[in-house]
Amino acid sequence: MSEMTSNAATVTVLADGPLQVEGRIRILAADGTLIKECEQVFLCRCGQSGNKPFCDGTHRKVGFSGD
Ligand code: FES
């Protein structure tokens, strides 16, 4: 594994669901304010979450399709 690969965050597009991000993660607001630091997060891809930018499971209720 190269150094770049070992330090890289990994984004996995989950079927009909959110983006799973793993690695050293910092989520910043539009104004640069730190929202969260973590090693795994699920980011909304359907646009319907009540807790953006995080997935709150609403994609299942709305029948989101990632196709
Ligand atoms: S992807 Fe889960 S709420 Fe949008």
Report on this model:
The chain has 67 residues and is mainly beta. The chain has 2 helices and 3 strands; from the N terminus they run αβββα. A 3-stranded antiparallel sheet has the order 1-2-3, with no helix packed on it. β1 (10-13) and β2 (19-28) form a beta hairpin. The longest helix is centred in the first third of the chain and has 5 residues, at 3-7. The protein binds FE2/S2 (inorganic) cluster. FE2/S2 (inorganic) cluster (FES) binds next to α2.
N-to-C series of helices and strands: HEEEH
Structural class: mainly beta
Helix segment count?
2
User: Spans of 5+ residues with little confidence (pLDDT < 50)?
Assistant: none
What is the CA-CA span between the terminal residues? 31 Å
Q: What would the principal axes of the Cα set say about the shape?
A: flat
- Please state how the strands of the largest beta sheet are arranged side by side: 1-2-3
How much is the average pLDDT? 93
Radius of gyration: 13 Å
**Percent of residues in helical segments?**
10-25%
Q: Any idea how many domains?
A: 1
Question: Would you summarize the structure shown here?
Answer:
With 67 residues, the protein is mostly beta strands.
Summarize the topology.
Elements: H1 3-7, E1 10-13, E2 19-28, E3 34-43, H2 58-61
Antiparallel strand pairs: 1-2, 2-3
Summary keywords:
67 residues; mainly beta; 2 helices; 3 strands; flat; binds FE2/S2 (inorganic) cluster
